[in-house]
Design a protein that fits this description.
Blueprint lengths: L6 H9 L4 H16 L10 E5 L5 H9 L8 E3 L6 E6 L4 E7 L4 H15 L5 H20 L2 H4 E6 L12 E3 L6 E3 L4 E3 L2 E3 L1 H9 L1
Parallel strand pairs: 1-2
Antiparallel strand pairs: 1-3, 3-4, 4-5, 6-7, 8-9
The chain binds zinc ion (2 copies).
């Protein structure tokens, strides 16, 4: 009989490698589900908005069940480690921002990474880099959530309808395009490639 994988192991398996970003997303997911007192999403009751497209997002998908494919994970790539989670039935939302890990260690790790990338690292630099990363990761997974994440109540202002991304038909190519990505051409909806072609001609 095989042992059931832990949630963290499932996140690593999905993501492919172990990294601090994944750990960050894992803890954010944990904080969100704790704050909203909810379980892993099955049918789009829980919605996540991620303000980045980093490694963290993969852990969020695995742990919260909010996925890009299901449409209840919305990526807004603002390059911010910030997330909003909302529960449809309760009209409740929280915004979570990630506090930066301690500065001194971060600086040393970044300096080591630069050295390694430049091919100027000695064997002990590489070992130190690996050990520091592993240490930070272990610490990151073990630390109390309130040291890692700031959780605030947020306004629930998500669409009421079950479809977060309704489709419209492009008036040029006839293909479906989700409404938030559609442009207008002669007052008719058009997909981005068609509207860009139009603008150039
Ligand atoms: Zn990663
Ligand atoms: Zn089109």
């Amino acid at each position: 009989m095989c042992m059931e994988k832990t949630p963290w192991e499932r996140a690593v398996e999905f993501h492919g490698h172990v990294c601090l970003g994944l750990a960050m997303g894992y803890r954010v997911a944990e904080a969100a589900m704790g704050a909203l007192a909810c379980k892993r999403d099955v049918d789009e009751q829980l919605i996540a908005i991620a303000e980045n497209d980093s490694c963290a997002v993969d852990a969020i998908q695995v742990i919260t069940g909010c996925t890009v494919g299901k449409g209840n994970l919305i990526l807004r790539d603002y390059g911010k480690q910030a997330y909003t989670f909302a529960l449809r039935d309760q009209k409740k939302a929280v915004r979570i921002t990630v506090k930066r890990p301690e500065g001194a260690k971060q600086e040393e790790i970044m300096a080591l990474r630069e050295k390694i990338t430049a091919g100027a690292a000695a064997e002990e630099d590489k070992t130190r880099f690996r050990e520091m990363n592993e240490g930070m990761l272990r610490e990151y997974l073990a630390r109390p959530l309130d040291e890692l994440c700031e959780v605030k109540d947020a306004a629930y202002d998500l669409p009421e309808k079950a479809r977060i991304f309704p489709s419209v038909t492009c008036s040029c190519c006839g293909e479906k395009v989700m409404e938030p990505r559609a442009r207008l051409k002669d007052g008719q909806p058009a997909c981005i490639p068609c509207s860009e072609h139009y603008n150039r001609s």
